[in-house]
Amino acid sequence: xxxxxxxxxxxxxxxxxxxxxxxxxxxxxxxxxxxxxxxxxxxxxxxxxxxxxxxxxxxxxxxxxxxxxxxxxxxxxxxxxxxxxxxxxxxxxxxxxxxxxxxxxxxxxxxxxxxxxxxxxxxxxxxxxxxxxxxxxxxxxxxxxxxxxxxxxxxxxxxxxxxxxxxxxxxxxxxxxxxxxxxxxxxxxxxxxxxxxxxxxxxxxxxxxxxxxxxxxxxxxxxxxxxxxxxxxxxxxxxxxxxxxxxxxxxxxxxxxxxxxxxxxxxxxxxxxxxxxxxxxxxxxxxxxxxxxxxxxxxxxxxxxxxxxxxxxxxxxxxxxxxxxxxxxxxxxxxxxxxxxxxxxxxxxxxxxxxxxxxxxxxxxxx
Length: 367
Ligand code: PEP
Ligand code: MN
Fold this sequence. Notes:
By secondary structure, the chain is α/β, with parallel strands linked by helices. The protein is 53% helix and 10% strand.
């Protein structure tokens, strides 16, 4: 039995509330899938001006209607300004979160914290206040936002890992850099940290593996964008999945320990955990060996590059040879693809190696 819905915090719903019909139809289908917390953005901080910025208070009315129909459904939305808090209370929102762009701005976070500080936490009607990581990979900035809210008396604080924006991201919309949420977990072992695979992946195909990764790392839950008609979504269309697809994804996510308990003749949880630890050690040992090989091979490769630089210098050839670069890049990608690897990832790795090679060769050319 897959008990992800019982064991983990699962929040799902559209990126944006777009109409009463869209929200209700998505909520009904999610309810059928066992989801009991609906997310929907009503104020949408857009990176560039001119896009759809959410229906604000109007959309909160649609959210309240969902609650009228499904009283045991919790409602969650993003807040970005102090006045959003009062409106969320007016329409019965249970859970609020600070978005990645807000967390990146200490003044904006402080304004929200100051509002919370006006009353003791027990008087606020919210179950949870989550803080998404800032857009940039800066653990201190994430911690800073959490501390501002803690100092304001907010007790039920959680964090959402939604990946980090790097220039030229290719595979992911926002790179996961799992080490950062894991470091946060070490600092706040009792705080719920959930993962938002939708904004990390930016595309549907990546939702399932990212959910699996988050669960395997022991994160406490998932916040996933789901829309009754994803292709027609006004925001983030490529990364939203229909409630049916979400149901399928969640049914496939397994906690490896419980999987072992079910599929083999291991009888106790202790035994399953011990087997998991052994397997983990074995796979990690393999990975360590492979990593050693990778680094050794890289050092050999750069040695060759430096020798080539001397040849180029002796015959007055420039270091960077575009045709050769394209040819090697193409071979690398094709090879990666034939091995079932992601070609974009391969391209990124090759570009990094090549850049370093040009740097080392240029040093030699200058001598
Ligand atoms: C969102 O959850 O729809 C959103 C805008 O996310 P983020 O703040 O992570 O970009
Ligand atoms: Mn979104």
